[in-house]
Every structure is written in C-alpha cells, then in structure tokens.
Fold these 3 entries.
Entry 1:
Amino acid sequence: MNFELSSEQKLIRETARNFAKNELLPGVIERDENKEFPKSQIAKMAEMGFLGMMVNPKYSGGGMDTVSYVLAMEEISKVDASCSVIMSVNNSLVCWGIEKYGSEAQKEKYLPKLAKGEIIGAFCLSEPEAGSDATSQKTTAIEKDDHYILNGTKNWITNGSTASIYLVIAQTDISKGHKGINAFIVEKNTEGVTVGPRENKLGIRSSDTTSIMFTDVKVPKKNRIGEDGFGFKFAMKTLEGGRIGIAAQALGIASGAYELSLNYAKERKAFGKEIFKHQAIAFKLADMATEIDCGRLLCIKAAWQKDNNLDYSQTSSMAKLYCAEKAMRITTEAVQIHGGYGFVKEYHVERLMRDAKITQIYEGTSEIQKIVISRSILK
C-alpha cells in the first residue's frame, strides 16, 4: 500500500492551489455578497483544464484520474466553493455521465465543448416534490414517433441559467415505477425550455441555482441516454461519483477554514500570548487537523476505488457524509476561534460556514447517505 501521491498528482494539487490563490481569492467576498456569477473565473478554469479533468483526451479532456480531481476540488473549495460546485457538476455529473453511458454520437457532439468549457452542463433530477425521493418524478416524457414530449419542472439546478445543455431525468411510463424513468440530453435553446429566477441562497451564493420549466419540449430519441428505462440507474450511478466531488468540496471548505484559523491563532494575542498557546484553542486545532486528515483519506479511497473499477458506492457515501458533517463543525469552530472577527465577512470564515451547510444537503442529504451506508453494511 502506497500513501504517496504521484509527481503528476502533486503538480495538479499545486497548480489548483496557486490558481485558487491568484485567480479566485481576489473578489471572492464581493462575488458572494452580490450573487455575482464568476464568469471570468470559470473561463480561466476552463483554460486550465479544470472543467473536463477526467474526460478522455480524444474528447479534448484532461484524461486525469479521480484522485487528481479530488485534489483539485479540495484546493479550489478552500477559496471559492461557488466555483468548485460549478466545476463538480460539469466534471462528475455531466461529463462523466455522458462519457460513461452516452452513445458515441452524443460523446462526439457534446463532450469536447464541455471538457474545454466552451459550454457547461447541468444535472436536472430534483423536483418540487421529488428531492431525496428520486423515484417520485412528476416530469414526464411522452414517446412519439422519433421524439419525446417533455413536460415538468426541475428545481435547485446548479448552472441553471448558464448551462447550454441539461441532463434531464423524466418519467416515460409511470406504470413501471423506477424502471419507467429515462435520462435525456436537452439543449437549453430548445423551444419550451424556460429558466426561472436565480435563488437567493444562504451559501455558494455566486453559483447559479434556478428552477427549469419544460413545456411541450420536443426531445429527439437520439438524445435519450442508454436503453429505455435506464434513467433511474443512470441518475444513481452518476450521483455515486458526484458524491466524491462534493465530499472533496466539503473537505476543501473545512481545510480552508482550518488553515485560516491556524494562521489567525499564531497572530492573535490574548492574555499576553498568542492564542494557539492556550490549550482551549490548541485542542480545537488538533481536532480540526485530525478530522480533515480522516476526511481526505476517505475521499482519496473512494477516488482510488473508482479509478480501479472497484465498487465505490459505500465509500463515496461515507466520504460525503463524514466530510459534510465535519465541514459544518469545523467551519463553526473556525468562526469561534476568530471570535468577533469571524462574524464579519472580511475574515472569510463566516462565508465558509455558510457554504458548508449545502454539502449536507445536495447530491444526497446526510440522512440519505446513512441509508445507503446502512443498506450496504447490512445486506
């Protein structure tokens, strides 16, 4: 067993770290405050290859392993979780879903543009009445001659108004239950697609979250992903990998808050000495460091299992559950270590605390992860 990263993986981590510091940190507070989509930052991320890291080079991707993706996600998330969720959705849901399960024609048409960041994608599963219960889809796709007619509403869609293509999960035969669900590639400029207003969110405020309405949208049959009835399995398998990305995001939020706290504790003085010399603060930092290392090992294990074609469903859920819960705890402690300064925007940790909360909710809540894990260990 080798715990050492390869020279390429170390280089990717260092590149992502420098990019986050030099390109994402400037203006991050203002973007959060104003709900400003990071358009120029995402364009630069695309130039650096961060939007199609794992895509095969024959489709203009980076051809990197999942471990490298996890390392980059952590570094980007330390500074700007809004940018990292855009990166995560495009990489591990949209690009991976199409490359793994799409037809060759679908791959050739969409993957090069997605991997190069010429367009970005969105994953449309959640509905007003179907969040955690993904089998209760109300969006329908009625089969016609050479197409489907799509009707319904999807909500909480990351990249909702900025994406050019949507991967949409819809019910085609309600009598078949989850086996009557399909997945479709829907282009945003198709007649009948309406994008709702951007949500005013607690965290990840500069990312683009909207509802999407589909009204009699004509979707060619060639845009269905996989065989008839494959949609539910497609969504679940894609989200299994997506959880590794969100676990890495939560890890990055936590480690970003820890690094800020560590530096602050070395500079801030109280009762005549730097506050890290007080055991109360030292022990908080010790707990943070331990929990972050545990989370990182879970993330890398899940990524390694995925890269080696092993079953990673349990580990990805464990990583997502653990890192999300610890991100919320660690960021709250970071605010506490900063005291009053932690409560103001200038010191970043309050934003990280707000950003941490969503990692317990999206791509499967912490409760859903416990269901997945318990079923796995008790089968």
Note: The longest helix spans residues 231-267.
Entry 2:
Amino acid sequence: MTEKVACILKGKDKLCDEIIIVLLNALSKDELSELNEALLFDEDTFLRRLIKYRLKEKTVKQSNKSISLLLKQYCDKKSKCVVSSRRELQNRYPYQSQQCQRKIISAFLMSGAKSDRRWAYSVLYKDWDPYFKNLIAKLWKEQRETMCEWLVVKYLPTDFLMNNLEMFHKSSYKFLCVRLVNTNGFTIDRSLLSDYDYIYVAAKTKIDIDKKFVQRYLYTYIIETINAMDDLSLEIDLRPRKRFYTIGATSSLCDLGKVQKILWCMSELGMIDELIEFNGWEVEIWDKYYETCDELCDENLFNTKIFRESVKSFVTPIELLEYEKSKMRELFGCDYVDYELITDDYLEELKVIKDGEEKAKMLEKMKAENPEFSAVMEDLELE
C-alpha cells in the first residue's frame, strides 16, 4: 500500500490537494512513517509538512512499551512495527541499564539494514564497550564497512591489528600508524601516507619530522588551493569578517580547506616560531588585499583574483632558505620581500655570491690537503 501511494504522490502534479490529504488520511501511523522515509529527498516541503502533521495527529499518548517487546517487534519484520520500534529503541537507549543497552546494540548490529548497523557503530564509537570486541571483529571481516573499521582501528587489541594489516583500507593507514607506532614489528611505510597524513601521524605520535617540511607543505597547500580557485568562485569562504580580538576587518586563511588542521599539527609539534611567522605573512597579504581594493569588500563579496595577486606579492617564509634570508636582510633589511624587488640583477648577485663561496670551500680543501700549496698562497699574498 505504502509503495503504491508513494508512486502516486511522486506524480503529485496531477493530483489536487484534497486527494493528497485523503490518501494520507487512509494510511496508518507506521505506513506514514515508511512513506516519509520513501519521500525523504522530495523537495515538496508542503507534502512533508502534511505527512509530519498527520503523524503527530495519529500519535496517541500511551505508556512505554517494554524494551523486550520493542526488541521483539523490531526483529520481527512481519510485525508492522519495525519503524516505530526502531525509533523508540534509539530514543530510549541512553536511559537504559547496561544489560538492556547491550541487547539493543546487539539487535542493531545483527540487523540486515546497513543504516541500523551504522547507528550501532556510531554509538559504540562514542562509548565503547569491550563486550562487543568479538562481534565487531566478525562483522568487520564479513561486511568490510568503513564505520566498523573505525572501531577496529581505535579499540581492538594491537595484536589483532598486526595480524590483519593487509585487510585494512588505505584510508585507515594513518590511524593504524597512530595506534601501532610503538608496537614491536611495525614500521611506518611512508609511501602509504600522503604528506598531510604523515604530518598528522607525527603530530599525534610525536615522532621526529623535519619542521621545514611541515612549513613548506603549509604554504604549498595554501598557494595551490588559491591558484585552483576560479576568479568568481565563492566555494571557499574567505570573505572578510569582523573579529573581536583584532582591530579592523580581517579574515583568515584558516578558513581555507584543511589549513586549520595543518596549523593544529604544527602546534602539536611545538612549531611556535613558525606559527608566528605564518601570522605575520598572512597579515601582510590582507593588508595588500585591502590596499588593492577600492574599498573594503562587502560581507557577501570576495574578489578571488585580487586576493590571488595579493598572495603572489609576497614570498612565503619557507621559500626563503636560511642562506637567502640572511642575504635578504643584508640587501633589503627584511625577510618578506615584494617579488618586484627580486630582479634579474639580484638573482645574478646571489649566484655570484654562491659561486664565490663554493670556490672558497674548494680552495680551503686544497690548502688542507697540500701544505705546500698553502705556503705558495701566503708568499704570493693570494686570497
């Protein structure tokens, strides 16, 4: 009956409102609930409001059914109470004893409905119960569901993880690394981790990692993401907004993709100086952006093209190697330099300086290996 009515309502353009109302009136509460799920993605808000009203209208106040009765109705697909008992079991779950909770979770895990198992997985992820260790391991091997795998990685014993490493999805590898980093026989395979995943694992486990690598990844990610944005794209929310702890209208690159996550990793790695340096770089970018705009951007307006050019106006801190930084300070008196200042003459000067230093190193090596050569240089007063 419900499927038939659902098919009719999908062609509701040919039905008058009165017919729709009497059709809904002919359905029971459980049938209305099933119809509501069948039309879950229907855009007609009037129809959904009408179904919701009818459901409320047909709801009769009654005393709570026992958990055992609800479980019986839920497990019996012919009871015509599966939908209502499922909903009531989920709503009443937090207020039950541990014994009743275990019965409810077990019923949902053994259900043939994937959505019911997912509900049980989510409950266990927030509040794990070792009682389900063996059942979760069995379901994971049979179903290979992602949410079930989260439970396996986070809660099952490390020896079980080590014995089944080849069965895990690639997306779970970084979490496996976090769990198993100190386990005998486990070695992190860097080739299975993206750059961000490797940084995340280092932040969580405090393994050694080159901080310059982390810093370089941050700036590369920001610039590549901005360069990929269309001139009129507003998919990434970088619109200026007021902040209570700053003066003036500002926005933040933290809103860009996973920048906030990268910065969190840097904080966990103790990269305080690099975070302060990033903040200074970002402030200069926004200052340049506002200078370029005729006026401050409207709340609903963001000029991606101008912002991209503003980012390009400044060398990122990681682009300045320590050697080049000292030369920047010497030549320009600062670390952050407009690209316009980095002329061909400057680049040529850097090349000459580097070549000179290489020659000096070679000369020192020759003097160390041949004392007579050193004496000749001193006699001729060569440098």
Note: Residues 344-379 form one domain.
Entry 3:
Amino acid sequence: MPENSTKQSISSAAQTFSGLDTLAFANGKPKLAATFKQEFTDFRVDEDLGFDLCEKGEHAYLWVEKVDRSTVDVAKKLSEATGVHGSQIGYSGMKDRRAETRQWFSIKLPAGREAQLRGCESDSLRIVEIHRNSRKLKIGSHRSNHFQVLLRDCEGSRDEFEQRLAHIDASGVPNYFGSQRFGRDLSNIKQVQSWMGAALDAGSGSVIDSSAASIPKQRFKRSMLFSAARSYLFNQLLSHRLERGNWNGYLHGDVLNLNGTNRSFALGAEDEWDSVLQQRLEDFDIHITGPLPGEVDPKDKYVSYGEAADIEEAVCKQFTTLLAGLRHFGLKTARRPLRFRPIELNWEWQQSEQIQGASNLLLDFSLGKGAYATSLLRELCVTRGPGQ
C-alpha cells in the first residue's frame, strides 16, 4: 500500500471534544445540588483594580455597573455614545452577562466631553464613577474580583455543604477555565479546530499557506478562538493530573509560580525538591503550573522538562491540529497555576422563598484575576438553571 494512503489527514481527522462535565474533581463529584442564577442579582461581581488612578491624562476611567449585558456590549455602547473607535476603549477582563457586575473601562476621551458618556446609560447600564488616568486599561490589569453568589433551594445536608466549603477553603480547587471560554456546545473549539485544520497540510500535518484557511478577520475573534484552544488544552492537562493525584504535588521538571504574581521559576535538572519548597507549596506561597500551549520562546528560562514535560506532551499530542495551529500562528507558550484558593471565603444560610423547608446559601469570596467562580462552584455542588 502506498505510504500516503496510510496517513490520516490532520485537518479532516474526526476530533472529539468533551465538555467541562467530564473533567476530574479534586474531592470527588459532589452529590449536592442548587439552583444557580435564578435572578441576575444572584451572581454579583465587583472588579478590584488594585492600583491608584492619577486623576489626569487623556483616558477617562469609568466604574460601570451592568446587568444582563456582556463586557463587549458595554464597550460598543460607549463607542456609539462618544464616536470613539473601539480600539481606544479598554477593559481588564470579561465579566458574566447573566449577572450584576461592576467593572472598569477606559476610553480615550478629551476632558470636557464626559457628558457624552451618559448617552449610553439605561436601566441595565449605569456609570457609577468617572476618573482620569494616563494609560489605556489593558487586559489582565486588575488585581482580583469579589463575588457574592446566592445558591437557591439547596439539595443535600448543610453539614455536607459546609464540609465541602471547608475543604475548598483549605485545599483550593482546580484552576479550570470556565465554560464561557468555549462557547455554547463548545462552538469556539469546533470553529478553531476547523480553520486551523484548513491551514494544515492534509498529508503530513505541516503548515501550508494559511490564507487558504477561513481565518476570522476580526482581531478580537481570532484572539478569542486562540484563547479557547489554549484553555481547552490546559483543562485537559489539569484533569489528567487530577486523575493521577499529582495536580497539587511536585513532579520532576514542573515549572512553579509565585502566588499572586506572573513570576515563575524551575529547579535545575540536578536540584532536589526539599522540605522548604514542600512547605511553601502547602502554604500556597507557590503553585505547580500547566502550559497554555504554543511555541516555546527561546528566551524563556523556565520550561518544563522530565516527567512533567512528558505528561504535558502526551496530553497535548492528542489534539494535534490545535497544537500545530497555535504554534504556526505564533502564540508563545505561557504558564498558568493548576490551582487557586479563594480569598476570605464566607457563607451564610438563608431560608428559601420558593420551597417550604429548603435553604439558600449565600457565598462571599474574592478570586485573583483569571480564576473562575464557576470552577469553585463545581467542586461544591451540581448547579442547575432556573426551572430545572
């Protein structure tokens, strides 16, 4: 049989993607359940910028309260109200649509034109404060997010809810990317798989002219799809390590992250993991990281090796098209902690207004940027939508 006839096209090979419900749990899949987001106010998020504004400069900084609106929608409304191009509007993070959220936006707007901003306000969008700063707000600039989450009509014993909350508070949770990254029914992953596959040579998997692929023209859309691909691969790697019980334990060659920073370090091949490092890991001062795959930057001093690298490679090579596409389009490998622990986690029981004898559970906590509240909730209970 000719050699080429035995090869399967990477671009045409059927790829199966699994949802978040298949990912492993840190403390076993919960048997508890509750209704989530019955009302918009059941999920409240306040963004903590984490730095002072200088109160001068060409950028207006807006503290915006929105209900049932996406971050992108608010940015469009600001553009329409002022005539400022969308590229001159900044925000630090995407916030949930079905929620009551407050977050910061920046807009390059000359002083004296602030009154124009009121043109975007409505019952579901309100500008709470206006300040000034010298620089545009960039993605990932904020420090943390504060959450108030009301879980209604909880099913299961209070003791079990509180036991799982205590475990979350003490041991942290897997730092999975939430479903928002992947679109409804994983549509973002399926789309990026399709157009990355179209840019790969069917015979060998090598890259051909990417202009032949139906690459999204909008930079924001491309960025969103790249992010979905990297996030999906990260989740798969994290789930793999959870299944093997080493997601929060050091493996030879792991890259480590300093808590609350973007700084990383790794031990030398001949260095030994010692009791001091182990204590720092147990104290959440440092974290094991996993890859956000792409090309390895030659300037990157901290690259996984040994057992850790072998696991990362074994998981990622199951998704050849995504991995090859990310490398072709020039994305550089980054690292993300495999776990997070909530800050000041508190809870309070309330009487349900809907079901006789049932209880609601109000959670109050903060998370560092990039961590998902839904990843915390999946370790606590199964959440159902309104009416389910």
Note: The CA atoms of residues 173 and 227 lie 21 Å apart.
